[in-house]
């Protein structure tokens, strides 16, 4: 009896700790529950709710709900991608963050084109806006804020040149060239031109990935990042790779 009591007492805290861990995980991952609930509700009642948006109050409520769900989900994806990138290190971590952002962009563009009466140029116009915002807005704000805080910054120009060597040709070929072609009506590409663009894009990005992950990994690591990082930097919360991937 005493032995059985000891075994029961020794396993009791472990068994009681599992529900606590599950509850803590669910509470921590509440954006996932909110996103799933929003998707389920709009899948069932979406057509009825969005059928009449003439009321400004109802329109504002729907807009705030959907925009809030998208933002909460996006920040949750970024948080997990950052945790996974922290585990994998550079330059694989940067690749994980890039793929997570690109995946969200493609899903949102595909959802808009699938749900509405979007034209074939919608995806191209959206990507052109993203390139302009990133290269002009985000990079400029980053340089400005970094200069105000650190006064003097160090950059890895080899990595920046490699990024620009891929972004600029793909942007011109995919976003600018269709406006000047005459083989198909409108700002579109013919099937032959589309095939050439696909092969060129895959080839350029494959070479870039080989440089980033195999040939010149040091191009994508900030010089002196390990030694110059401030001690008060808030590192992302890191869990298992399986949890971050899910």
Helix and strand topology:
Blueprint: H1 2-28, H2 30-50, H3 56-88, H4 92-115, H5 122-150, H6 157-176, H7 191-215, H8 225-228, H9 241-245
Distinct helical segment count? 9
Terminal residue distance: 44 Å
Which term fits the overall shape? Answer: globular
* Strand percent estimate: under 5%
Number of strands: 0
Quaternary organisation of the protein chains: single chain
Low-confidence runs of at least 5 consecutive residues: 1-12, 226-233
Instruction: Give a short account of the largest sheet.
Output: none
Structural class: mainly alpha
Q: What is the typical, i.e. mean, pLDDT?
A: 77
Helix content: over 70%
* Radius of gyration over all CA atoms, rounded: 24 Å
Give the SSE order as H and E letters.
Answer: HHHHHHHHH
Give the tally of structural domains. Answer: 2
């Amino acid at each position: 009896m005493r032995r059985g009591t000891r075994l029961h007492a020794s396993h009791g805290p472990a068994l009681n700790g599992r529900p606590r861990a599950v509850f803590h995980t669910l509470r921590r991952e509440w954006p996932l529950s909110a996103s799933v609930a929003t998707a389920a509700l709009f899948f069932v009642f979406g057509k009825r709710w969005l059928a009449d948006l003439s009321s400004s109050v109802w329109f504002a409520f729907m807009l705030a709900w959907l925009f809030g769900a998208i933002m909460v989900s996006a920040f949750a994806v970024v948080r997990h991608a950052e945790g996974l990138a922290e585990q994998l290190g550079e330059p694989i971590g940067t690749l994980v963050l890039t793929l997570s952002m690109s995946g969200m962009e493609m899903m949102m563009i595909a959802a808009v084109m699938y749900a509405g009466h979007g034209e074939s140029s919608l995806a191209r116009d959206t990507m052109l806006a993203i390139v302009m915002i990133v290269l002009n807005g985000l990079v400029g704000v980053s340089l400005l804020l970094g200069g105000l805080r650190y006064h003097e910054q160090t950059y890895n120009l080899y990595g920046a040149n490699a990024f620009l060597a891929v972004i600029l040709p793909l942007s011109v070929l995919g976003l600018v060239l269709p406006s000047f072609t005459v083989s198909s009506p409108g700002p579109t590409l013919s099937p032959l031109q589309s095939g050439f663009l696909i092969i060129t894009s895959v080839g350029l990005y494959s070479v870039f990935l080989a440089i980033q992950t195999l040939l010149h990994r040091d191009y994508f690591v900030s010089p002196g990042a390990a030694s110059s990082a401030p001690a008060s930097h808030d590192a992302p919360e890191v869990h298992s790779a399986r949890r971050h991937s899910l």
